[in-house]
Amino acid sequence: MSTTSVRRAVARLSLRTRLVIICLLLVVAALLASNALLITLLQRQLVEQLDERLGTAAAAAAQLPDLSDKTDATAPPSRDAVERQLTGDVYVVRLSADGGLSQSLRPSVGDAPELPRLDAAAVAARGGEPFQASGGGSDWRVIAQPVRFSSRQVQDGDAPSTGSIVAAGSLDGVNGTIRGLGLRMLVIDSLVLVLLGAIGWFAVRAGLRPLRRIETTAAAIAGGDLSRRVPDLASTRTELGRLAAALNGMLDRIEAGDAARAATNDRMRTFVADASHELRTPLFGIKGFTELYRMGGMPERADVDTAMNRIERESARLVHIVEDLLLLARLDEDPTGRTRLPLKLTPMDLRTLAADALHDLRALASDRAVTLTGPGGGPPRAAPVLGDEARLRQVMSNLVGNAIAHTPAGSSVRIGVGTHNTLAILELSDQGPGMTAEQAARIFGRFYRADTARGRTQTGGAGLGLSIAHSLVTAHHGRIEVHTSPGQGATFRILLPIHTDPVGD
């Protein structure tokens, strides 16, 4: 099977299956390593124990007299003396100096090991260290130790002869013990793997339950339910908790963006509908008079003059609406956050606008009582700002026109100017019918007119004045507020950042 096929097969497995397989592979590797180490250590220990037995047997055999000149009847007592100090099947022989067999102190039960040539020089070279030999289909551990013993020549004055004691032990017992232990370990490890696989399957299944909940939530969101959220499955210190928090944050932004797009589309549809209505009214008036003239419905000069005056007023109204729409379009922010309307910012004092608004109100509505105070009352105070005087004057003109058009004749008006903390304030308060909270929230919308509460007149505008005022104040990094309630009038308040450089009165 190629590597690509293996990868495809693995990719088709579920995450739970892959996790269980990985865990089992790690357990198998750990068991194999630990078992191999344990068997190696045990085998080494058993071999060392066999070497100790062989060393003990060789040392005991070296203390026995040389019985090579005796008859075979004397061998059993010697063999019994050795066996009293030995345990197990140990093969012990006495070799002469030239490596020949001198005496068999303990013969092997089966086949004897095939020993290499062990003359005096070879035994001395081995230094008493154990070595392995084979024979009879088995492996043997062998120890050869040099020894000096006396023969019958010692009685005739001859020098003592030299030789060696060789002790050998079969490794069949050690190998059998290792094979039995390995088989038992194999059985135990198999049972352990089966048990761990079952436990791991259910443990991984329980651990992945939060991910299945996230999957269910994601499927519901993909189906269009953007209000769904991933439940708080764990602490944000964990990977799962951070994943849930990140998903919920992303969903909040997606839902907010979707709601904003929907609101924008609604406003756009409303704007197009309102703009079409406002533009259609003067256009229909102009079209009606022109068709009436074409059809000969204006035989007299006076009728023509009256129609032309109406056409002129409707044209002026149409031009005014278009100019307001263009101004609003320029005031809208572009993607860089800048307005497309250049502002000529210079240091100025809002008291100038307040004084001009006072004169305008007295000239346009001489029956109204107009007072100039500070914000909320008291004497007026300086309000230095950095602004475009022409544009701010346009804002104040819209507020003045709004107060005249939508409040009862003879009602009083108050103009306030001053500062509060880091803001310069210019406000206009009337004693009109006021507005509800819902109307106040929509008062700065385009083409919005609170007709039921503010009494639109026949000469009322298109509902763009307050929207233009709001956009112009926003372009000056300020804000415009309205404080009102039904029957309590309305107060429009312009708040702009204070300009720190001194400005003369």
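[next item in queue]
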Amino acid sequence: MTTDHGTQAQVIVRLDGVHKEYGETKALDGVSLEIRAGEAVAVMGPSGCGKSTLLNMVAGLDRPTAGTVEVRGQGLGKLNETGLALFRRHHVGMIFQFFNLIDDLPALDNVAMAAQLTGTSARQARRRALELLDELGVAERKDMYPAVLSGGERQRVAVARALMNRPALLLADEPTGALDSRSGEQVMDLLIDLNQIGQTLLMVTHDPHLATRCASRLVELADGKVARESSLERTA
């Protein structure tokens, strides 16, 4: 991928020799990987191969046993827990399989809260939240609580929340895993649209259809190692 100046796009994520062990279990075994600005990368592999561990490393939710993780040039190992939380809020958006919305807040406040945590005024945060909900087609549901939203609507609210602080990197952990096929297709369309306007995406999925529709590169893990990397031609 090249920029307008003909130079290679900025590296957003760099993992170098990352190991992660939980007792006797090797979740990651020497993973090295680079993701450049504007890429959409899908990580696939059998259960227990280290996919979610990899995503947690990039998010700074977990720390490697050995090796280094950099996001936007920042070595995550150099940050304490508070520093990691602040870094995530400003630079990383996250979408989860089960949405992780706050049940006792309506959709608008679920989204706006992400910006308020970074110091944005409530008024500004709510304005941007409404814009995002509108762009994602769920503005009319802004006053509804998560329990009365459909799965697809909840995931759209979760995507809006993830985009609230204009993150350099959007992480998605099985983003369509809890959705029916129609809602899943709508969320895939959304991820494609986001990537086409320049959003860098890293997705973990067991769904080959999601990978081939939404990603430009596939990273396959096996036994905690990168088994294969390949370019993808997006399918309709």
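[queue empty]
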